[in-house]
Amino acid sequence: MSNNLSTVQQIYACFTQGNVPGILAKLSDDVTFFNGSDPAVAPFGGEFKGKDGVIQFFNGLGLTTQTTAFVPENFREDGNKVVNEVRHDGIVTATGHPFSVNAEFVWTFDDKGMVTDWKGTGDFSSINAAFLN
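Predicted structure:
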């Protein structure tokens, strides 16, 4: 297993434990996070810059949703990138409505093994709808 793939799996372990400082330790200071949810609806949708932005992303996610399933799978590497699929199921706490998202995550690394960019793309329509209903 490459160092980059190992880092992504460590980040997922931190996520399932709610260990945001553990995630931040794997990110470059100028990291960019992008989540495909509609930022007009979901407080964790859109682009977030720097570690403060990543904290904002995780605060938005953690304060507004409850995760019921988080399944990263089908990991592959392409140069300085790690790509994988994720199924993320949960409930929007304000509405009580469930969501199920199938997404592709792309992690980009610098030459020091730090994450410089993360993109979550796919069909986020169910999470957007869960916030609106």
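Summary: The CA atoms of residues 34 and 47 lie 4 Å apart.
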